[in-house]
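Dear colleague,

Thank you for sharing your sequence with our group. We've completed the structure prediction you requested, and as agreed, I am returning the results in plain text so they can be pasted directly into your records. Please verify that the sequence below matches your submission; if there's any discrepancy, let me know and we will rerun it promptly.
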Amino acid sequence: MRIIDIKNKIIDFVRDEREARRVIELLKKNQSEMHICDLDLVLLLVSLGAFQFISNKQFDLLCDSEFAQYLAPKTFSKDAVDFDDEKRINEIREEIAYTLKKQILSNEAIAVIDNHELIGNVNIDALIANQATFINLQNNISIEARTSGIYSFALSQVDYRILYDVTLKNNADVSIKNLVLKITSTPNYVTFGEINIRLLQPHQPIMISDFVVTPQIDELLKLNEKQIGTLNFTLYDGETEIAKLSSEMIYYSYDTWVERLIPGSTALFVMPNEDSVKNIVRLTAQTLQKETGKASLDDYQSGDKNLVN
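Please find the predicted structure tokens below.
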């Protein structure tokens, strides 16, 4: 079997970049089980244009292989290469890195790599069949979330829930194990702890209502006007995203009045360093001086009820 044979089967199967990425991830993950040697795998990645998946170790292997001359033709067109010559070896590596980064493989390089015979017989059909099952599963997982829809610095200071619950539904016919739900805020005004889902059974929704929520106080305090954002919910199987949801949020400025949400919340807006508060303190001190002869605001420390009143 040649590189081109596997490449064509993958291209015929995938419908978009997301599916292509998933197949490539599966190839790397199941390399040993599929009996793909390291050089064959890196050549397949080059042929597919999946250069971002090539590890440093695989890059070193490619640079030391017979295929280096096709990926670094300018360097090899010079005097005979002495592989003990560190400078020349570095030139080869730099040219190959540039070729892959800019995706400027020559037709000769593509042809040589595509027609390379793999050492083992790779069962790519089984991998694609498993991916088809995964896509069917992915299309049958859903996320629902009930949020408050709004948040602010003031609301972060009281027992106010930005997120009420999240419901996960599995409408496929197979169970999924060991999932992770990640929740993020855009912009990053709130962070959430990751939630591990041990088992998501078919047609048995699970509801999550216990969340570790950490307001980003410094960021919320910087808000001086209303901003539209989102809460983002992503469900992962390993490193692969299988479901996602975004829910719109309104993030209000730090001084937005929330009396209608939290009656009696005036104290949330008492900011000691605000000019208006300083002015009230100054006027109060003047009145106190006039009526008692003392301008000190000492709360209950004096023991004089007239000063307190």
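Summary note from our side: The chain has a mean pLDDT of 82.

Kind regards,
the structure core
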